[in-house]
Amino acid sequence: MSALDRLHVMLPSLGLMETDALVESHLERASKEQQAYADFLAELLAGEVEARRTRYLRTRMRLAHLPYQKSFAQFDFSFQPSLDKRQIKELQTLRFLHEASNVIFLGPPGVGKTHLAVALAMQAIEAGSGAYFITAHDLVSDLGRAAREARLERRLRIYLAPKLLVVDEMGYLPLDEVGATIFFQLVSARYERGSIILTSNKSYGEWGSIFHDPIIATAILDRLLHHSTTVNIRGESYRLKDRRKAGLLPHPERRKDSGN
Ligand SMILES: Nc1ncnc2c1ncn2[C@@H]1O[C@H](COP(=O)(O)OP(=O)(O)O)[C@@H](O)[C@H]1O
Ligand SMILES: [Mg+2]
């Protein structure tokens, strides 16, 4: 068996698939360029490391259940002048993640709350953290079912494990008493342990109506906001932008403010 044949047995058995695929071309180049041994080895392994990282990130990305992949680069900040760019820059450092503090995006539909939450989650994943995305409605119905089947504790772990939990669309649907209690439990369990990014179309003053009970709403907000950044977006819906351009909708300044 030639040395090369033995390599093609050993490399796959070590799980070095990328190296196995590229070893010939690397060898050829090394002899052509008279590469030093260390340079040859470093280059060969760099390919394997890169391939692994790509694979690992792809898995993490899949596990995160993002509704779509959108980055900060794809966000048009000029469309949303009410956004504090310095605040967004600070969030992009992911300091909040290391401090286990929370981020709350508030604003009317279509202003980019989910987009920015997804962009932060992607950045967290690229930095090596686990993230999980779920809508408030799916979260509470999943945990509600678990509670009825007396396996809430175990099911909660799914939402406690990732460094970053994104809870999207809090407040679109009100929660019943059990839902509110479950949400309180989740927020308490993650408190000072892992970050939550939350998006909502309701201002904090309206949270009492999401949870029916002002006392539990206060208890939830208390923990959620203790270490947190609130990003208020007051602009126009990006979804309506093109329709407005086409003259299918009135201009914002002529429209009576709906107040949500
Ligand atoms: N400023 C923006 N620049 C680029 N795309 C945007 C911007 N704001 C929103 N979008 C896009 O518009 C759509 C609606 O935004 P989304 O984040 O889902 O809004 P919501 O605030 O309702 O969560 C998405 O496809 C999003 O990528
Ligand atoms: Mg949204």
Quickly list its features.
single chain, 260 residues, 12 helices, elongated, disordered C terminus, binds magnesium ion
What's the total number of strands?
5
State the order of secondary-structure elements, H for helix, E for strand: HHHHHEHEHHEHEHHEH
List unreliable stretches of 5+ residues.
253-260
The molecules bound to the chains, other than polymers, are: adenosine-5'-diphosphate, magnesium ion
Rg, alpha carbons:
24 Å
Helix content: 40-55%
Shape type: elongated
> What strand line-up does the widest sheet have?
2-3-4-1-5
The average pLDDT score comes to 92
Strand content: 5-15%
Alpha-beta content class: alpha/beta
Largest sheet, if any?
A: 5 strands, parallel
Number of helices: 12
What is the CA–CA distance across the termini? 74 Å
Q: Can you offer a commentary on this structure?
A:
The chain is of the alpha/beta class. Helix content is 54%, strand content 11%. The chain has helices at residues 3-13, 17-33, 37-63, 85-92, 95-98, 113-126, 136-148, 152-160, 177-190, 207-211, 214-226, 241-245; strands at residues 102-106, 131-135, 164-170, 195-200, 228-232. A five-stranded parallel β-sheet has the order 2-3-4-1-5. Strand 3, helix 9 (177-190) and strand 4 form a beta-alpha-beta unit. Helix 2 (17-33) packs antiparallel against helix 3 and helix 7 (136-148) packs antiparallel against helix 8 (152-160). The chain is elongated, with a radius of gyration of 24 Å. 24% of the residues are buried. Bound molecules: adenosine-5'-diphosphate and magnesium ion (MG). Adenosine-5'-diphosphate is lined by residues 70, 74-76, 79-80, 107, 109-115, 199, 238-239. The site of adenosine-5'-diphosphate has 17 residues, from helix 6.
